[in-house]
Write a structure and sequence with these properties.
The protein has 9 helices and no strands. It is an all-alpha fold.
């Protein structure tokens, strides 16, 4: 008797098609989404109401329970710090993104405009940040180092491309814009800071190249001008 060998069905089995999304992975994804929604809701609430922000209202705005909020942020301070770190991380990440999308000088300019937005967020959070039990020293120290690194990356790229002068100190740009935000009591400081970005960029451009002279402009003495006839 000839025994037939059973054929093996072609194509991948269900197990071979790749693991299904596990419940644990779904829970992690849900937790990450909830955390992001809480930070977004908290930033909006802090900007609008300052230190009086209600955690219950933040949870409602994020469409999660207050228990979920406390699982992610056990204290009010933890939530405030997370909002600040998120704003700072977005700005730092933008430096790398812009470096891949824009030419060197345009990337630097756009990032400085985003830095002005970050200063605006920080000013809106100033009252809440002032309530942190441990103070803001460590928080600001961490952000200063990361922002300095991002600014150095963009300035270095613009310098290597020949778009700006080689003697630019990256931190000077941040200090100049921070000065506009912190020194001026004018509520319209952000418009002034935005204008300052272009003042800075124009001042940083490499001036070693000979610029074309405007039509009809007077020629300074000694710059190729011939002496009038009959005069020494």
């Amino acid at each position: 008797m000839i025994r037939r060998t059973p054929t093996v069905s072609e194509g991948p089995t269900k197990m071979q098609q790749g693991p299904a999304t596990t419940p644990a992975r779904r829970r992690r994804a849900d937790a990450e989404r909830n955390r992001a929604r809480l930070i977004t809701a908290a930033q909006r609430a802090i900007t609008e109401t300052g230190v009086r922000v209600s955690l219950e209202q933040v949870a409602r705005d994020a469409d999660v329970s207050i228990a979920t909020l406390y699982r992610h942020f056990p204290t009010r301070d933890a939530l405030i710090e997370a909002v600040y770190r998120q704003a700072m991380s977005s700005l730092v990440d933008a430096a790398t993104r812009l470096s891949g999308e824009r030419d060197a000088v345009a990337a630097l300019r756009e990032w400085l405009l985003l830095f002005v937005d970050f200063l605006d967020t920080k000013k809106g959070m100033s009252e809440a940040l002032g309530t942190l039990i441990g103070g803001t020293g460590a928080l600001y120290g961490e952000s200063s180092a990361r922002l300095a690194s991002a600014a150095a990356e963009l300035v270095g790229r613009a310098t290597r491309a020949g778009g700006i002068r080689p003697d630019v100190e990256p931190l000077d740009l941040l200090r100049a814009l921070g000065g506009v935000a912190n020194v001026s009591p004018d509520p319209d400081w952000k418009r002034s800071a935005t204008r300052m970005v272009d003042v800075l960029i124009n001042g940083l451009r490499d001036r070693t190249a000979v610029l074309p002279r405007r039509s009809g402009a007077a020629v300074p003495s000694g710059e190729g001008a011939s002496s009038p006839k009959g005069k020494a």
